[in-house]
Write a structure and sequence with these properties.
3 strands, alpha+beta, single chain, 107 residues
Length: 107
């Protein structure tokens, strides 16, 4: 992954919101993202595919669900950028809608 592609990826609001949620929960199902972000599953999946193709996120199938998490082998510079973003994530944690739906479990 190069820095240009990484920052282009982060420049999209939806992808940035997805990353913020993944950083809060650490392991997130698509259904949680669609509920939280109030977007369609195909739209979320399209953004997840880009994040996965750049190796920012990893996916893991558990039964019929696919869960996403940050790639632990990101370059150090990318990890530092995401760490800064996660520290600025307070607004997401203080939003009552996030707190209510962040514990949604796919069934």
């Amino acid at each position: 992954m190069n820095q240009t592609d990484f920052f282009k990826c982060l420049s999209d609001t939806t992808r940035l919101d997805i990353l913020k949620l993944v950083m809060v929960k650490q392991n997130v199902c698509v259904c949680e993202l669609t509920e939280q972000l109030q977007l369609s599953q195909p739209k979320i999946s399209r953004h997840l595919a880009l994040l996965r193709n750049l190796s920012i996120l990893l996916d893991q199938r558990q039964g019929q669900w696919v869960y996403y998490r940050l790639n632990p082998n990101l370059p150090e510079w990318a990890s530092k950028v995401l760490d800064i973003i996660s520290k600025q994530n307070d607004d997401m944690l203080e939003n009552p809608h996030v707190n209510a739906s962040i514990s949604i479990h796919c069934e």
